[in-house]
Give the backbone structure.
Amino acid sequence: MKFLPKFCATALAFTLTMTPVTAEVMRQITVQGQGVIAAEPDLATVQIGVQKRAKTPADAMAQTAAAAQNVVARLKEMGISGADLQTSNLSLNVLESYGSNNQRRVEGYEAANTLNVRIRDLDQVGAVLTAVVADGANHFRGLRFALANPRPAQDAARQAAVKDALAKAALYAEAAGAELGDVLSISTITQQGAPVPMMRMEMAAMSDMPVEAGEVELTQTVTLVIELK
């Protein structure tokens, strides 16, 4: 076995460490584009709930169950499929009060049953809300309009976002006296829609609730990294 003298090994290590490495720096530009597509909704979702109060928990639950069954029956009668109905909340709470001496007193019980409902015939939304009130529903939440199949509109928004980013990149490159090369990477940013304010209505009787679906907007943002020549 041969050994390299210590001073030679040190010199070699120093030489390897100090060897310069020249790398060509690629010129590139990073741009962001946005595509917004407006579409007419074909689906409405709403939470329909029943709340009942009684002196005993059993009575509160029984009254709520009876009203909820009537609401479900009405919805199905109006053509809403069972697949478009889902219980989202079932609760029972004690109603308390405190006297002047801070003594706890049970006033009764409140039971609640809430359904998530999808309505596919938007012309029927107002009539549905009116009908279920007569059957015992006494609160609504979060009426929202959407697309049953959002994929085509999402794809259109993605294409518009890429075109927007490429147009910006071409403008910047021309201003800088450069040309665009290959697209090196594409990344997307998922943007959630703005939250819909919670809507709560306590009603006894009313005519069909006027409801306007308007349009829904789908937004897609992309970031492109493009080579500059």
Notes: Residues 151-175 form the longest helix (25 residues).
